[in-house]
Amino acid sequence: MKQSKIFKLVSLSVITAGLLVGCGSSSSSPSTTPSSGLLGAVLKGPIDGATVTVYDQDGKEVASTTSSAGLFTLKKFNLDSDYYTILTTGGSYEDESTGTTVSMTGTEGLETLLSKAEFSEMLTNKEYVAMTPETTIFAELTKENLKAGDDLATATTKAETLIQDLLIKNSSPVSQLQGSDKVLKKGNLVKAGASSATIALAKNRAISYSNLMKDLGLAPDRVFEIITKIKEDIKDGKEDGIDLDDDGTLDVNASEVTSNARDALFVQTTSRISSGNLSEAEREELGSLGFNVNATQNRNVSEREARDANLTADIANYKVSTTLPTLNILKTMRDEDGDLTDAKATYTLTANTDVNVTINTPEGSWVTPMWRYNNEQLPLIIRANRGDAMTLKLDNQLKADSTIHWHGFKIPAIMDGGPDVPVASGKTKEYRFSMLQPAAPLWFHPHPDMQTGKQVYMGLAGVFLLEDDISKKLETDKNLPSGNKDITLLVQDRRFAPEVNGVRALQYKTMAMDSDGMLGDKVLVNGSIVPKLNVKTAQYRLRLYNVSNARNYDFAFDDNRSFKVVATDGGLLNEPVEMTSITLGAAERVEIVADFSNDAVGDKVLMISRVTAGGMMNMGDMNSGNSNSGTGGMNGRNGGSRMGGMNGGNSNSGMGQQNSMGGMTGMASSGQGFVIMRFDVNESVRDDVTLYTSLPSTAEIATRIDPSTATNADNPRKFVMTMARGTSGMSFVINNKTFDMNRVDEFIATGATEIWEVRNASMMAHPFHAHAVQYQILERDGKPATGTDLGWKDTFLVQPGGSVKIVAKFDPLINVGDYMYHCHILEHEDAGMMGYFRVGATGNVGN
Ligand code: C2O
Ligand code: CU
Ligand code: CU
């Protein structure tokens, strides 16, 4: 009987290792409780073979036993001490996030401290004692308080309060929403009732320490050392920071790292639920943690069906619609110096408000006041050649600071248009630099402090098409479509207010959810909704820009035809990649070659954005309704905005993979499908383009950067994106830090080649972007880069729980100064999900 239970427990923990909450809790509760002793669980991963020893207040051993698969039973002994400490040493467990077996050595282990009263109460009630990393911190703090002269009650309360305030309060969606978590929520981690829910939660917490180690990039067996350091950090009631590597500098903050670790765990848990395949045991365990597993899955299925049905209806409708507006072709600006052949160009971009833009849609037109450059109706295109010396003037006629950031450009930091060099209202600035990088679909947009989202949303952005000898030769050799078969498509979602006298104003951050990433319910392509483009029976080069504030798209054609991706953010791919759909996060670009040569005149082909599965876990799916919604709001640097999804209770908003706002019925979510535009085949021609199969070897992208040449090859620079909870609510951060214009976060040597590892320990996908150069992706989620990941990238989506490893070569002559890295969901960036890295010894920011 006992044997089979242990077997079940162990095998379950193997199955679920690294995925979510540990193994089936229901099977870990023995059906009979020995009346003679104390039951306990040792949970840092269920520890097997640990020596569990009870000491009285004088340090005298009074009982001892050995744990088996995380459980133990202590023989009865006389309770004649004021308190007892229970300590484990030795044994081994399977680390949940890495799957490795950790054997404990020396004195490391878990601990707890129980008063005589608690001990006897637990015995009477046949409750479990749970030992977790947090009980260990609790016991150590209590012992120190006792040593300092506190009486037992004071010592205990002080330690509990510290843990409650610094490690638990606001730190975990699970702990906030877990109604049954009375014991642990109070901060009293000493005892855990025999309910499976409490043991499951204790396990869940213990596993978060496994995530923590992974987040910190430390080996799992150092967890006990880190527990000690966390205890040291919170001892004085301040979060001074932890010196992880003992180099004398404080690296991380205890409450933030534990909070982030729990977020990571929560992400795993929710995405597990969303993905469906849960075993009965997992279902039970998640149920006991407070997740309404069935409701989530059912709702996900019905939402998915509803979205699919909507898209199908839209496709049927727009396929035959006779009222689609004609696609606007974006205007290319003229070089102001008049000489179109020299390698110099001057352009002026005047940022204006109150430009009355006509929005054409299949259902008619309306006027929307927008902000534009040069009072134009539409975003402009600047074309340049590699080697060109650019002079780009910004004339800021907005009522606020602005800048122009040159997104994807390899230029000195001082010319990069970051918030550290603002251009005040009414002022002008000249950006001067040379185009010293391969042909690429670049772009530009404002980047002022905390206002980037608003200014871009209102309409300030432009396209910068860089060409070089290779791209031009491919065009003249007819290895790439060109001329009027080269179309730039700017995709942006917007939300419009109801019409008043033919005018529909843009709505920005008018709803609680908007601060989590502004999503519109209408998708515009070059300023129109579902436009059409007449095409010939030929191949077309479509330069596809996702310049939305927050939305991801999964571009495809309605007949699922394949296309060739020929370029990514930073230039042509060495080899075109054939695909049937491609996901672009905010700020990502691709150039695709769509082939209409096999279509007949009269055919209509829709470009769509497919419905994405996305985890649509809602906080509203937590069973417990008593969460404290007062701490659930999101307070970014802009303050005040609320994120409904964290409110628990009956909130039906949620977040999940693909940054979908799953539960918001009637509101566009990132996983929703759209018809983007239509291609009407109206003329039969002989297609004369034979697409290139590989670039000449002189193309930089033909050579992969050798990661072993990186200055930090053994120790990649780490960026962890999280949505952390502080006392004021939720914030979006990288490496636990909110953007500070006067702080440089990372220091990089002149001319260095560096490997960066970008991890997403949050519940939604984030497009990570870094300025300065174009990057090569080495690995995605631990697997070598393939396909379009082999192109130059300046922005890439990192999925919840995912990681992307990149390599960057900083140019010693160009890359100097302070550049930013950030999430390109502009509302996250504005809320502080951004930092500075300094290349070289001097910069333009702060010290
Ligand atoms: Cu397109 Cu720092 O941004
Ligand atoms: Cu940029
Ligand atoms: Cu983000």
Structural overview:
With about 850 residues, the chain is an alpha+beta fold. Among the domains are: about 250 residues, no CATH class; about 140 residues, Sandwich (Immunoglobulin-like). About 20% of the residues lie in helices and about 30% in strands. The strands form nine sheets. The protein has a seven-stranded mixed β-sheet with strand order 20-19-18-22-27-24-25, with no helix packed on it. Strand 30 and strand 31 form a beta hairpin. Helix 3 crosses helix 4 and helix 7 packs across helix 9. The longest helix is centred in the middle third of the chain and has 28 residues. The protein is elongated, with a radius of gyration of 29 Å. The N terminus is likely disordered. The site of CU-O-CU linkage has 10 residues, from strand 14 and strand 40.
Summarize the structure.
This protein has 847 residues and is an alpha+beta fold.
Major sheet: arrangement of strands: 20-19-18-22-27-24-25
Weakly predicted, low-confidence segments: 1-35, 172-194, 614-668
Bound molecules: CU-O-CU linkage, copper (II) ion
**Average pLDDT level:** 82
Characterize the largest beta sheet: strand count, sense, and whether it forms a barrel: 7 strands, mixed
User: Helical region count?
Assistant: 14
Strand percentage, roughly? 25-35%
Q: What is the gyration radius calculated from CA atoms? A: 29 Å
Which percent range fits the helix content?
A: 10-25%
- Note the gap between the termini: 67 Å
- Secondary structure: number of strands: 41
Structural class: alpha+beta
Which geometry do the CA atoms define? Answer: elongated
